[in-house]
Amino acid sequence: MTTTTTRASQRGLGGGLRATSKVLPEHARAHNRSLVLQHLFHEGPTSRAGLARATGLTRVTISDLVGVLLAEDLVEELGTQPGRRVGKPAILVGMRTDAYQIVAVDLSDDTVMRGAVLTLTGEAVDRRSLEVGSRRGDELVELLARFTRRLIAAATRPVIGVGIGSPGVVDHSGRVVEAPNVEWRDLPLAAILTDRLGLPVHVANDANSAALAEYTYGGAADSMLVLTVGQGVGAGVMVDGARVHGAADAAGELGHVTAVDDGEPCACGRRGCLETVLSTPALRRAVEGLDREAADAVLADVGRTLGKALAPVVGALNLAEVLLSGPPELLAGSLRTAAHDTLVARTMPATAAGLNLRMASLDDDVVLAGAAVLVLGAQLGVS
Questions:
Q1: What is the pTM (predicted TM-score) of this model?
Q2: Residue 137 parent element (H or E)
Q3: Distance CA 168, CA 285 (A)
Q4: C-alpha separations of 186 from 193, 240, 250, 253, 301 in Å
Q5: 21-55, pLDDT tens digit by residue?
Q6: CA separation (Å) from 329 to 14, 292, 324, 332?
C-alpha cells in the first residue's frame, strides 16, 4: 500500500524522520482517515475513485473509509459527478464542515479573553469576550473554564473540541511551561480543562497558533514565519508544512532576542530585546506627537532592526514568507518596507529571491483561527 500527503510535506522539522516504533494497524487507519479528510477539506467534493487516485490508497480501502466517515456524519454523498457520459456515474463525496463546531479561545491579550464558536472552516457562529481584570494564576484558570463552558453552551452543533492560544511557552501536551504575564508555570492547562469540560482541549502558544491559522486558512507558504506584534512580540514558524517546536518547545521566541545594544530594559530582565522597540506600546510611544514624515522615519528604523533580527532565521531556514500580524497603521508602511529591504540585503540571493514580507491575512482573528486548527489537526488530522 502506498500513501501520499495532500498538504503537508513530511520533510518538515518535527516531521518524524527517524522511526522510533513500528507502525501499528490502528496508526495506519488513522493516517489513511486523515488523508481522506485532508483532501476533502482542501480540495472539495471528490468521487471515491478520485480519492483513491489523490491519496494512493486502494479503492477497497477508500470504500471502507468513506463508509465509516458517512456513519460518523463527517462526510456525505452529494449526487453524481457532472460531465461523465460513459459507464456508471460517479457519486461525489464531500466533507460536512457544517455538521460539527469548534470552540476557540484567544488569551494573547492579558487584559481580555476572546472566544468564538467556529465552523470547521473557521467561520464564526458566535463571538464573546470577557475582561480579565487582575486575575492571574489559578483565578484565571477558573475564569477561563467558566468562559469556555458558556461558549460550548452557545454552540448550535456538536463540539468536537476546544482550542486555546495561550501566551508563554507551551509544550506538545498543552502544558504551559512558563507564562510570566499571567503567572502560569508548569500548568497542565489542556489536561485540567479536558477534565472540567468533558471535551478534548488542545493548547498551544498564541504565535504558533497564528502560524497554523495562516497556513490552513490564510494560504501561507509551507515554509514561513508569522510575527505577532501586540503587548509583546512572538513568532510561529512552519518549515515544509510542519510546525517547528524546538528543543524546549520555545521555538519562535524572537521577542527576547537582543536587537539593540544598550537598549531599554525589558520585562524579561535584560536590555535591548526586540520587544522593547517592536511591541505595540513601544511603537506607539515612539511615534507619539510626530508628523507623518517623522513617524515614518522612526518606523523605518525599527523595520531595519527587525530585518537584522530576522535575517539569520530566514537565511538558515530558507523561508518563503514572513507575515506580520498586528496594527497595520504601524506595521504595514515604512516599517514593513525597511524590514524587507534589510532582509534582502542581509541574506544570499538564492534565499532572498522571491521572499515575501507581507501583512497577515486573518487580522484580529488569527489566534482564534489557529486555536481551531489545533482541534482540526488533533481530532480529524486536518491542517
A1: 0.84
A2: helix 137-154
A3: 24
A4: 15, 30, 14, 18, 38
A5: 555 677 788 888 889 998 998 889 999 899 999 88
A6: 35, 11, 12, 6
